[in-house]
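Duplicate of earlier report; FIG017608: hypothetical membrane protein,specific for cyanobacteria input re-posted below.
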Amino acid sequence: MTSYTTSSAKAEMSELRRLKGLLPSELQSWVTIEIALEANPPLIRCEEISREQVEIQIDLAKWDNLAIDQRNLLFWHEIARIQNDTIPKDGWEMAALAIGLGGAVGEFWVQDGLLLVLALGLCGISGWRLYQKKAVRRLSKN
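Output:
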């Protein structure tokens, strides 16, 4: 008798293979499908790893609760985003952090409190996103 974790791992791999089979042939070489490793990930997310590599991350715990038609629809929606080149580009956090820090320094000079708070908020959000990405990469290496 197989354990629950073994059968669960087999079911996860089976679902990933099924989704890989749904990919159009021109995307199969440069689109990978992975299980999301974050603590509270979104259901499905596309991320451009490099110019020639796109990764689709899926939270399989939430994914299994959906009907097969819903899964296929969500998956094809992500495929359409890849084909239309509308996936969010990586690296906006560093630009937002630089803009926020520059804005904060400028607002110290002008002494406008509301704009200073907005600039610091932008820095905080982008800094938090950078911290989360680094923490996920560190956990996945271990």
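The first strand starts at residue 31 and ends at 35.

Merging into the original ticket.
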